[in-house]
Design goal:
The complex is a heterodimer of chains A (122) and B (193). Chain A is α/β, with parallel strands linked by helices. Chain A is 45% helix and 18% strand. The longest helix of chain A has 13 residues. The chains are: A alpha/beta (122), B mainly alpha (193). Chain A: One of its GO terms (molecular function) is phosphoenolpyruvate-glycerone phosphotransferase activity.
């Protein structure tokens, strides 16, 4: 099973910027992102999230989000997706960074989730 | 009572009109405790609903609610999109079994609560739905009671949504989603009258 990461943020620049930070320590982990509404306004878009799921070459996805509607739209999208999706209510930057670094090191999912647990903030 | 397709269509039309008329006000309510976009989000969504229904006239209640849900889910862009979208999606599923109004709305409320995780008292649209549904079921719902339910969100401290990040500071403001849900139920009363 290979794992990828999906970042969802209200702001396009935030969604595009965070993968740069992650990719620095996880160059082999597939990371895609969905930021802003369909018109690139501040908000989230189910369509963009579905695209980020489909564009990610991994079979199973770990997803991280910023606030509010990002989670609800992530859940809606994961109900429509064929890939298994894991959603974490954790501090966005720290937990995505942690997951990326651990995936790169070949750490198994339960161990990664144990590492993420104390970062739960929402 | 059973909800007929023409009543439900009327309901959505009236709701769309009310949203359009009050979009600036709804966004003003969303200013002190949110990001000032609730009215514009909802207006964009209801416009998409109108376009969708004009393009393809739904054959039945389930179809009407499904098209409404998809338009709201894909076009709103804020929390109210997946929330109202899920409400209509659940009504669409329920409409396959029954067109009884109270059971449709009960399914909708369960969907909103599942999607957003809010309970009564969290200062969200859920407060209005929780107050209104039993009154509607008993046939005692009036516009005044809807206003009361909306107004009752004012003193609450928000536990969900953007306003929750303000803590105590969220007190003293009407929740914008509660207000738009108030419009939804007033439109319903008019449509089934
Ligand atoms: N978790 C929730 N459960 C129920 N209702 C909620 C929840 N979060 C927000 N709401 C409702 O949604 C309304 C805000 O809708 P709006 O369209 O402004 O979305 P938003 O909060 O700006 O979205 P975003 O999360 O993208 O910032 C609130 O007034 C509240 O009634
Ligand atoms: Mg808002």
């Amino acid at each position: 099973m290979n794992y990828g990461i999906v970042i969802v943020s209200h702001v396009p620049e935030l969604a595009q910027g965070l993968p740069k930070l992650l990719q620095q320590v996880a160059k082999d982990v597939p990371i895609t992102a969905a930021g802003g509404t369909d018109d690139d306004e501040i908000g989230t878009s189910v369509t963009k999230i579905m695209t980020a799921f489909a564009d990610n070459p991994a079979d199973e996805l770990l997803t991280f989000y910023d606030l509010g509607s990002a989670k609800m739209n992530l859940e809606l999208a994961s109900e429509m997706s064929d890939k298994p999706i894991h959603l974490y209510d954790t501090a966005l930057v720290e937990s995505a960074y942690s997951a990326a670094a651990l995936l790169e090191a070949g750490v198994k999912l339960p161990e990664i989730e144990a590492q993420l647990a104390p970062l739960k903030i929402k | 009572m059973d909800l007929a397709l023409d009543q439900a269509t009327k309901w959505l039309e009236l709701f769309g009109d009310e949203i359009e008329k009050n979009k600036a006000y709804l966004s003003d309510l969303d200013t002190p405790i949110g990001d000032a976009d609730h009215g514009f989000n909802m207006a964009r969504g209801m416009e998409a609903v109108e376009t969708s229904l004009a393009q393809k006239a739904p054959a039945d209640l389930a179809g009407l609610f499904k098209q409404t849900a998809m338009a709201l889910i894909t076009k709103v862009g804020g929390a109210s999109g997946p929330l109202y979208g899920t409400a209509f999606l659940e009504m669409s599923k329920q409409a396959a079994q029954t067109s009884e109004l109270n059971s449709l709305l009960a399914a909708a409320l369960a969907g909103i609560k599942k999607r957003g995780g809010a309970a009564a008292g969290d200062k969200t649209m859920v407060d209005v739905w929780e107050a209104v549904l039993p009154e509607l079921a008993q046939g005692t719902l009036t516009d005044a009671k809807i206003d009361e339910a909306v107004e009752a969100t004012k003193p609450l401290i928000a536990k969900k949504g953007r306003a929750s990040y303000l803590g105590e500071r969220s007190k003293g403001h009407i929740d914008p989603g509660a207000m738009s849900s108030g419009y939804l139920f007033k439109a319903l009363l008019k449509a089934v009258a």
